[in-house]
């Protein structure tokens, strides 16, 4: 089947509801060549789960090959600040460098670190939801979903409240994340480069401050970890913000909209003990990151199709999370009591999301507070989706009580 006949990530109709197209892809094969992005689309849960763990694939190839050896052009030198920032982060490292940095960062980003943040997260969620309720509603995304994870990451990194750059954390992140969409434009690249330069400059200045005046924060802890370069510290902090808030924002907004659209909000408000299972189901049902791309470092075979070294595969997380072969005949349904839920929203293997416990903590806090304080919550208008396909979100979510 020609994948382009059903897969159209630049179409607003497809972005609004890609799931019928995913079903068609699953029905007609395990790997589909997609010409517009020169990628192999992989839609099945079993394959996606396996390939996330397969060391014959990588987020980068430069630990083994030059660009020329791999048959790929070198990045545009004008985009160098973005690539320097991105290429030194955990998400895009492989081999010995990834193992070294993940081991070192894990020393600072421990379960105890997340546990220590719990009172702060709950206090922030209570305050933001309280303001929304006092106003009788408003834009839940702007009022609650966006400020919560940004404030948590800022507190975690030790970004002082008086620093004017604190207000730039979300815009910087949004500009950088624009490069993760398919075939980003040159204007998108320019915005990402500018944000990379500004964000990196601010973090280097903050690191310098913490070297002379350390605090009880992640940057101070990273400074104390022997073996991390300053660039690796900067890239780690940026990744924590980008990955640590995009999924949380979009799962909060998308989750509220899904619960309201399915009529599940009142029932969940009466049974908050079901929230943990419900959050996992929301992460599965409408996945905030729809695609995860990897390079083929050694030839692989998927369902009889040989995919050669130098190719790129696009693992369709949103499709894998709706695969009836793994989730049964109710794969497309919202089931807040789904106990067997091995979704791949946080990835798998060595790139499993380091911040997953923090994301779960934030989602639990914000949903619990919303359900408690706003059991009669309802949509004031049908939300409009952002045009991006890879990062799945909305422009806003207008609600009323």
Overview of the molecule:
The chain is α+β, with helices and mostly antiparallel strands. The chain has one domain (3-400): Cytochrome P450 (Cytochrome p450, Orthogonal Bundle), CATH 1.10.630. Helix content is 52%, strand content 8%. The protein is built from 18 helices and 10 strands. It has helices at 12-16, 19-28, 45-53, 67-70, 80-87, 95-108, 111-134, 140-145, 147-157, 169-177, 186-212, 218-223, 230-261, 265-270, 275-285, 317-320, 324-327, 356-373; strands at 32-34, 39-42, 57-58, 137-139, 291-296, 300-302, 305-307, 312-316, 378-379, 398-400. It has a 5-stranded mixed β-sheet with strand order 1-2-8-5-3, with helices on both faces. A 3-stranded antiparallel β-sheet has the order 4-10-9. A two-stranded antiparallel ribbon has the order 6-7. β6 (300-302) and β7 form a beta hairpin. α5 (80-87) packs across α11 (186-212), α7 (111-134) packs antiparallel against α9 and α10 (169-177) crosses α13 (230-261). The radius of gyration is 21 Å and the shape is globular. The model has no long low-confidence stretch (mean pLDDT 93).
Topology:
Elements (H helix, E strand, L loop, with lengths): L11 H5 L2 H10 L3 E3 L4 E4 L2 H9 L3 E2 L8 H4 L9 H8 L7 H14 L2 H24 L2 E3 H6 L1 H11 L11 H9 L8 H27 L5 H6 L6 H32 L3 H6 L4 H11 L5 E6 L3 E3 L2 E3 L4 E5 H4 L3 H4 L28 H18 L4 E2 L18 E3 L1
Parallel strand pairs: 2-8
Antiparallel strand pairs: 1-2, 3-5, 4-10, 5-8, 6-7, 9-10
